[in-house]
Amino acid sequence: MSAPAEHQSAGLTGLEVRGVSVVYRNGNRALDGASFSVPKGSITALVGINGSGKSTLFKSLMGFVPLADGQISIMGMSVKEALGRNLVAYVPQSEEIDWSFPVLVEDVVMMGRYGHMNFLRMTRPQDRTAVDQSLERVGMQAYRKRQIGELSGGQKKRVFLARALAQEGQVILLDEPFTGVDVTTENQIIELLKDLRAEGRVMLVSTHNLGSVPEFCDRAVLINRSVLAEGPTSEVFTQRNLQKAFGGVLRHFVLGGEDLHDDDDARQVTVLTDDERPFVIYGEAERKAQMQVGTPKGDSRK
Ligand SMILES: Nc1ncnc2c1ncn2[C@@H]1O[C@H](COP(=O)(O)OP(=O)(O)OP(=O)(O)O)[C@@H](O)[C@H]1O
């Protein structure tokens, strides 16, 4: 385990995942020698097909599953130590939550404070202040007395983000934060994540919204059991890499020639999507000239 002095010298690395393998009890090797790093003050997209190991990676960062091999360091500490210091906050996939459980919005956010309380969980003024400020920050103050199950998909996401803020997590893991969320809420969440990045926090965001990634993620990790590519989004998010990560799952449309131009302009529009917001590339074939964020056909979200 790292000594406190080493935390200071850990410098700019937020997450360091080295050769991590996870084998489930049924023998399924969900991660196989995965390695990547995420600097502090950055937003990293975690992108891959269904079953590629994204949730398993989150579980290993949360200490929920044991590593068969490899090491993880979080802000220069072991997973256990980082969790013990409340540094890691998790915003789960909506499907993982039992929405029929009767609990008020403000109580969900207060759960983020549990790690800061003593074992009797008596709330102190600073806990209530943290809850107020977090709800304010995600624009959900007006809903604090509502049952969580009575909110829309986007509002629920914002409440869980508020819980992560109340926890004062320095590393925020977001599992599919845009699924079931309208474009306005998605933009609000992206703005909040950018503010958190400016504060030096680390965010790892799994998403199928390929088109949004270049918009707000400075880095990307493409995964399929092991890491296929990692680094700055501008270098990683290429047609070749995305096809490697998604194989036949990716829908691929190319518009060019007289479908697009009334002269002999050689540039094409390439649209890559795994059915959420598509990733659009405009330029000559095999040469990435310009990347744009596309608008989905009829905004077809899951
Ligand atoms: N508890 C478990 N026991 C055995 N195998 C599991 C378990 N959980 C997940 N797996 C398997 O491990 C692999 C990775 O699953 P994981 O949930 O990490 O994928 P994912 O990338 O998050 O997928 P999705 O995009 O669908 O959420 C899959 O083959 C899955 O079937």
Order of helices and strands: HEEEHEHEHHHEHEHEEHHEEEE
From the 3D coordinates, which CATH architecture of the largest domain would you assign? 3-Layer(aba) Sandwich
End-to-end C-alpha gap: 42 Å
What's the CATH topology label of the largest domain?
Rossmann fold
Oligomer: single chain
Largest sheet: 6 strands, mixed
Bound molecules: adenosine-5'-triphosphate
What percent strand? Answer: 25-35%
Global mean pLDDT = 83
Order of strands, widest sheet: 5-6-7-3-8-9
CATH class of the largest domain: Alpha Beta
Number of strands: 13
Counting structural domains, the number is 2
Structural class: alpha/beta
Count of helix runs: 10
* Shape designation: globular
The percentage helix is 25-40%
CATH superfamily of the largest domain: P-loop containing nucleotide triphosphate hydrolases
Family: Belongs to the ABC transporter superfamily.
InterPro entries: AAA+_ATPase (IPR003593), ABC_transporter-like_ATP-bd (IPR003439), ABC_transporter-like_CS (IPR017871), Metal_Ion_Import_ABC (IPR050153), P-loop_NTPase (IPR027417)
Protein name: ABC-type Mn2+/Zn2+ transport system ATPase subunit
Pfam families: ABC_tran
